Amino acid sequence: MQKDILAYHKTLTAADKTICDTLYETICAALPEAEHKIWHRHPVWFLDGNPVAGYSKLKDCIRLLFWSGQSFDEPGLAPEGSFKAAEMRYKNAADINIKDLKRWLKKSKTIQWDYKNIVKRKGVLERLK
Predict the structure, then answer these.
(1) pTM of the model
(2) Helix 14-30 vs helix 98-110: angle between axes, to the nearest 10 degrees?
(3) Which domains occur in the chain, in start order?
(4) Exposure of 49 in the CB half-sphere (CA atoms within 13 A)
(5) What string of pLDDT tens digits covers the 129 residues of the chain?
(6) How far apart are CA 116 and CA 114, in angstroms?
């Protein structure tokens, strides 16, 4: 695990750290080609410079975010924000359905909106791939 992400995990409670450790291992295994780093204070995975998945600590849970998740057509993911992102929230590690998570991660490779160039396009998202 990278030092900055390890440092992030060390700030969490034991229960939240277990959730994040599971997410980290599963995301890294599913997206081995992805760059991952702390971005805006949270672990995020990028494909060709485009953010695709990440997680963060909220007040009462860990939020897993897929930047293009609304286009995955997955009933388990809730819309987040005003663009194309979708989320899943976890209160404990037992809530993580690894089969669903792997399916979402597979979709994150092939279904992407171009967040990398959103500023250049003045807030307009274009579909990639």
Answers:
(1) 0.93
(2) 50
(3) 3-128 (3.90.1150.200)
(4) 4
(5) 999 999 999 999 999 999 999 999 999 999 999 999 999 999 999 999 999 999 999 999 999 999 999 999 998 999 998 899 999 999 999 999 999 999 999 999 999 988 888 888 777 788 886
(6) 5
